Description:
Elements: E1 7-11, H1 20-33, E2 38-42, H2 48-52, H3 64-68, H4 74-77, E3 79-80, E4 86-89, H5 94-102, H6 111-120, E5 125-129, H7 136-144, E6 147-153, H8 159-175, E7 181-188, H9 195-208, H10 221-228, H11 233-236, H12 241-255
Parallel strand pairs: 1-5, 1-6, 2-4, 2-5, 6-7
Antiparallel strand pairs: 3-4
Amino acid sequence: MSGTGSRRLVFTNRKGGCGKTTTSVNIGAALAHMGHRVLVVDADPQAHATMSLGVSLGGLEHDLSTVAIGRSRPEDALRRSYVPRLHVIPATRRLADFERRYASSGEARGWFRERLSATMDAYDYTIFDTPPTTQLLTLGALVAGREAFIPMQVHFLAMEGMIEIVELAEEVQRRYNPDLVVRGIIPTFVDRGTPTSRQLLVELKERIGPEMMLKPIRLNHALAEAPGAGHTIFQHDLRSTGAVDYYRLAQQIRNMAPPGRPTS
């Protein structure tokens, strides 16, 4: 699928604590376990995706920020994860400095796409994990990506953040990246045992439409434990509901036709 068939996925939400990094890491791992070549681009200065995939931050000379400003080549920054076929372009705290320095630069919004395009085309999937903001790093990922997915905690207060990121993606599509499409909302922290959670799922589906609501991720303690152990959910607890849910979601995403192509 490399080259023109490669897919560029952006997992984003301006709200923290919605499972965005957990989703980025575990969808990437699931696709790699299915046999695909996957690149995870960590665009969050907290570097949680980097650490969750076993890449040490100590002594990293090259990261996404040095690639973006042209100081490093993408191949200098690439790191192997412990998951076969999955590579990482890591984040470090330098990303926060990069964002502050170039926040007002319209040109900088296209640097991820310009600097990473050839590298992304060498993978079947590129996954951007973004910070919980609507600032430069998130904009840069949306300009570089083609498919936006929004993990959203099933809570009535989360609806506002979901709407805001959809509007941001639509603005990026109009102004910078006509290839960008919002593909779906991913409900996270779903507790089907509570009437409130079930009702919110019904309301969410009614609001966004059934085709935009992707397979939900159930509340699962193993998902919270895995990053602390430096694991994806598949290494941490393969039999957990978290592993089942993320594998099924990855299958759903894999089976989607890339934007602009008919579904097979």
